[in-house]
Automatic annotation (TrEMBL):
Alphabetized PANTHER family for the sequence: OXIDOREDUCTASE EPHD-RELATED, RETINOL DEHYDROGENASE-RELATED
Record carries keyword Nucleotidyltransferase: no
Annotated protein name in UniProt: NAD(P)-dependent dehydrogenase (Short-subunit alcohol dehydrogenase family)
Protein's organism: Actinomadura viridis
The keyword Oxidoreductase is annotated on this UniProt entry: yes
Length: 287
């Protein structure tokens, strides 16, 4: 397994300004990791680092748009120069676009794919290359194997649970799952683990910040608030999901459906794809 503990590890987390990203950063910090918190909202990332420091961890905050290839190149290079090659990378940054496919415009597709899929591609490619170069450059000792690191890519139960009202979001997350499986196979020989994590309903602000297409402004706001309340009512906080991420790194899991609904939907997608296609026709509960 790539990593068995986190004391002294360097962890890079995108979308770390809140929600699952912040919870994961703090879970790793609590176990002794130094955290690099990246977010498009710099003050939010700085708050995460401040919280990590109360746990006795070191850290640094960066502002970066994960969909921007040049910005991510600069970010990865700066982390390496200022600190070193990270041991853990959690590609968590994500956005949601909800609504019918025929109402989803090109700009909406570009945004959700840019953050949810390209952000994961950029983070995996840039930091994965750094990890691979480190493994190849350092000799492995018999009593201390050269551990390459671990990449965690946050997908969603929507990756395998189709919905008539989440075509863009589900497509982006399905891409993350397949990318992770391919990358895991490629990097296994270098002792670099790759995990796809698929949360179900988790108490974050992703719905409150979502874009709803095909409806007016007032209706969009109503749907955002209704969806946000539904996630909070589910009672599954991001801290619980973060614990599953930590466990996945320790155990080098390939694929982790996080909570009960994520596991049930995954099992159903494998046992009866036809039933999943029928469920996909039901209008989303957020409506």
């Amino acid at each position: 397994m790539p990593l068995a503990h986190f004391d002294g590890a360097l962890a890079v987390i995108t979308g770390a300004g809140g929600g699952l990203g912040r919870a994961t950063a703090l879970a790793l910090a609590e176990r002794g990791a130094t955290v690099v918190a990246a977010d498009i909202d710099l003050p939010a990332a700085e708050r995460t680092v401040a919280l990590a420091k109360t746990l006795g961890a070191e850290g640094a905050a960066y502002q970066v748009d994960v969909s921007d290839a040049a910005a991510m190149e600069e970010f990865a290079a700066e982390v390496r120069a200022a600190r070193r090659v990270p041991d853990i990378v959690v590609n968590n940054a994500g956005v949601a676009v909800a609504g019918p496919f025929l109402d989803t415009g090109v700009a909406d597709w570009e945004r959700v794919l840019g953050v949810n899929l390209w952000g994961v591609i950029h983070g995996s490619r840039l930091f994965g290359r750094q990890m691979a170069e480190r493994v190849r450059a350092l000799p492995t000792k018999p009593d201390r194997p050269n551990l390459g690191g671990h990449i965690v890519n946050i997908a969603s139960a929507a990756a395998y649970a189709p919905s008539r009202e989440l075509p863009a979001y589900s497509t982006s997350k399905a891409g993350v799952v397949m990318l992770s499986a391919c990358l895991r196979a490629e990097l296994a020989g270098l002792r670099i683990g790759v995990t796809a994590v698929c949360p179900g309903f988790t108490g974050t602000d992703i719905v409150r910040d979502a874009t709803f297409v095909g409806v007016g402004g007032a209706e969009s706001e109503r749907l955002r608030e209704r969806g946000h309340r539904a996630l909070q009512a589910r009672g599954y906080p991001p801290e619980k999901a973060a614990e599953r991420i930590v466990d996945a790194i320790v155990r080098n899991r390939a694929f982790v459906p996080v909570n009960a609904e994520a596991r049930v939907l995954h099992a159903l997608s494998r046992i009866s794809p036809a039933s999943m296609r029928l469920v996909a026709r039901i209008p989303a509960v957020l409506r």
